[in-house]
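User: What would this chain look like folded?
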Amino acid sequence: MPALHLTPAERKDKRGLAHHLDPVVMIGTDGLTPAVEREVDAALKAHGLIKVRMSSDDRAEREAALQALADALGAAPVQHIGKLLVLWRPPADKARAEREDRKPGPRIVKLVKPSKHPARAPVARKVKVLGNQRVTAGGLIKRAKPVQRSAKKKAAA
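Assistant: Here's the prediction, encoded as C-alpha coordinates.
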Protein backbone atom coordinates (compact mmCIF):
# COMPACT_ATOMS: atom_id res chain seq x y z
CA MET A 1 0.00 0.00 0.00
CA PRO A 2 1.72 3.24 -1.07
CA ALA A 3 1.93 6.24 1.22
CA LEU A 4 -0.53 9.09 0.74
CA HIS A 5 0.80 12.43 -0.43
CA LEU A 6 -0.32 15.69 1.15
CA THR A 7 0.00 19.16 -0.26
CA PRO A 8 2.05 21.61 1.81
CA ALA A 9 -1.15 23.37 2.92
CA GLU A 10 -2.74 20.09 4.02
CA ARG A 11 0.46 19.09 5.82
CA LYS A 12 0.51 22.45 7.63
CA ASP A 13 -3.10 21.95 8.72
CA LYS A 14 -2.39 18.44 10.02
CA ARG A 15 0.69 19.65 11.90
CA GLY A 16 -1.48 22.25 13.64
CA LEU A 17 -4.07 19.64 14.57
CA ALA A 18 -1.36 17.26 15.86
CA HIS A 19 0.33 19.90 18.00
CA HIS A 20 -1.64 19.16 21.18
CA LEU A 21 -1.70 15.36 20.73
CA ASP A 22 0.29 12.99 22.91
CA PRO A 23 2.13 9.99 21.43
CA VAL A 24 -0.12 6.93 21.33
CA VAL A 25 2.52 4.41 20.21
CA MET A 26 6.09 4.07 21.49
CA ILE A 27 8.74 2.36 19.36
CA GLY A 28 11.46 0.85 21.56
CA THR A 29 14.96 -0.38 20.91
CA ASP A 30 13.73 -3.33 18.81
CA GLY A 31 12.63 -0.85 16.15
CA LEU A 32 9.79 -1.43 13.74
CA THR A 33 8.26 -4.83 14.52
CA PRO A 34 5.01 -6.36 13.24
CA ALA A 35 3.45 -5.71 16.66
CA VAL A 36 4.31 -2.02 16.40
CA GLU A 37 2.79 -1.87 12.91
CA ARG A 38 -0.42 -3.47 14.20
CA GLU A 39 -0.63 -0.95 17.04
CA VAL A 40 -0.03 1.99 14.70
CA ASP A 41 -2.69 0.62 12.33
CA ALA A 42 -5.19 0.28 15.18
CA ALA A 43 -4.41 3.82 16.37
CA LEU A 44 -4.86 5.21 12.85
CA LYS A 45 -8.23 3.44 12.58
CA ALA A 46 -9.33 4.89 15.90
CA HIS A 47 -7.94 8.43 15.61
CA GLY A 48 -6.83 9.16 12.06
CA LEU A 49 -4.03 11.52 13.14
CA ILE A 50 -1.46 10.14 15.59
CA LYS A 51 1.94 10.81 17.08
CA VAL A 52 4.49 8.03 17.48
CA ARG A 53 7.55 8.34 19.75
CA MET A 54 10.69 6.52 18.65
CA SER A 55 13.53 5.95 21.10
CA SER A 56 16.30 5.72 18.48
CA ASP A 57 18.93 8.47 18.41
CA ASP A 58 19.71 7.95 14.71
CA ARG A 59 17.84 10.52 12.58
CA ALA A 60 18.12 8.48 9.39
CA GLU A 61 16.63 5.45 11.14
CA ARG A 62 13.68 7.54 12.37
CA GLU A 63 13.06 8.94 8.87
CA ALA A 64 13.22 5.42 7.39
CA ALA A 65 10.76 4.16 10.04
CA LEU A 66 8.35 7.02 9.27
CA GLN A 67 8.45 6.25 5.56
CA ALA A 68 8.17 2.50 6.16
CA LEU A 69 5.11 2.96 8.40
CA ALA A 70 3.49 5.29 5.88
CA ASP A 71 4.10 2.84 3.00
CA ALA A 72 3.00 -0.25 4.94
CA LEU A 73 -0.21 1.30 6.33
CA GLY A 74 -1.26 3.59 3.48
CA ALA A 75 -0.84 6.69 5.63
CA ALA A 76 0.65 10.10 4.96
CA PRO A 77 3.83 11.14 6.78
CA VAL A 78 3.00 14.56 8.21
CA GLN A 79 5.99 15.51 10.34
CA HIS A 80 9.21 14.21 11.83
CA ILE A 81 10.41 16.46 14.61
CA GLY A 82 12.93 15.15 17.10
CA LYS A 83 11.88 11.70 18.21
CA LEU A 84 8.22 12.27 17.32
CA LEU A 85 6.67 11.00 14.10
CA VAL A 86 3.25 12.24 12.98
CA LEU A 87 1.10 10.09 10.67
CA TRP A 88 -2.33 10.71 9.15
CA ARG A 89 -4.77 8.45 7.36
CA PRO A 90 -8.30 9.45 6.36
CA PRO A 91 -10.94 7.67 8.44
CA ALA A 92 -12.71 4.73 6.82
CA ASP A 93 -16.42 5.10 6.15
CA LYS A 94 -18.42 3.14 8.67
CA ALA A 95 -21.38 1.29 7.24
CA ARG A 96 -24.38 1.80 9.48
CA ALA A 97 -27.63 0.00 8.89
CA GLU A 98 -30.76 2.09 9.30
CA ARG A 99 -33.35 0.69 11.64
CA GLU A 100 -36.71 -0.05 10.03
CA ASP A 101 -38.66 0.76 13.20
CA ARG A 102 -37.06 4.19 13.62
CA LYS A 103 -39.44 7.10 14.06
CA PRO A 104 -38.76 10.60 12.72
CA GLY A 105 -36.60 12.73 14.97
CA PRO A 106 -37.08 16.29 16.18
CA ARG A 107 -36.80 19.09 13.64
CA ILE A 108 -36.65 22.87 13.80
CA VAL A 109 -39.58 24.67 12.15
CA LYS A 110 -39.86 28.41 11.57
CA LEU A 111 -43.31 29.74 12.40
CA VAL A 112 -44.33 33.12 10.99
CA LYS A 113 -47.45 34.70 12.47
CA PRO A 114 -48.88 38.06 11.43
CA SER A 115 -48.68 40.80 14.03
CA LYS A 116 -51.85 42.03 15.78
CA HIS A 117 -51.04 45.54 14.63
CA PRO A 118 -51.20 45.87 10.82
CA ALA A 119 -48.28 48.32 10.62
CA ARG A 120 -45.84 45.99 12.37
CA ALA A 121 -43.81 43.20 10.81
CA PRO A 122 -44.87 39.58 11.24
CA VAL A 123 -43.44 37.69 14.21
CA ALA A 124 -41.13 34.79 13.35
CA ARG A 125 -39.88 32.20 15.82
CA LYS A 126 -38.17 28.84 15.59
CA VAL A 127 -39.77 25.89 17.34
CA LYS A 128 -38.57 22.32 17.87
CA VAL A 129 -41.22 19.90 16.60
CA LEU A 130 -40.91 16.34 17.86
CA GLY A 131 -41.55 13.27 15.74
CA ASN A 132 -45.06 12.74 17.06
CA GLN A 133 -46.14 16.36 16.51
CA ARG A 134 -47.33 18.41 13.55
CA VAL A 135 -47.79 22.09 12.80
CA THR A 136 -51.32 23.20 11.92
CA ALA A 137 -52.19 25.85 9.34
CA GLY A 138 -52.76 28.32 12.18
CA GLY A 139 -49.24 27.79 13.55
CA LEU A 140 -50.20 25.58 16.50
CA ILE A 141 -48.29 22.44 17.40
CA LYS A 142 -50.47 19.38 17.86
CA ARG A 143 -49.83 15.70 18.31
CA ALA A 144 -49.94 13.85 15.04
CA LYS A 145 -51.85 10.91 16.46
CA PRO A 146 -54.62 11.17 19.01
CA VAL A 147 -53.93 9.69 22.42
CA GLN A 148 -55.50 6.26 22.75
CA ARG A 149 -58.13 6.03 25.45
CA SER A 150 -59.57 2.99 27.09
CA ALA A 151 -62.92 1.57 25.95
CA LYS A 152 -64.52 2.51 29.29
CA LYS A 153 -63.55 6.17 28.93
CA LYS A 154 -64.82 6.27 25.33
CA ALA A 155 -68.18 4.87 26.44
CA ALA A 156 -68.42 7.39 29.29
CA ALA A 157 -67.72 10.36 26.99
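The chain has two domains: 8-88, 107-156. If you want, I can go into more detail on any region.
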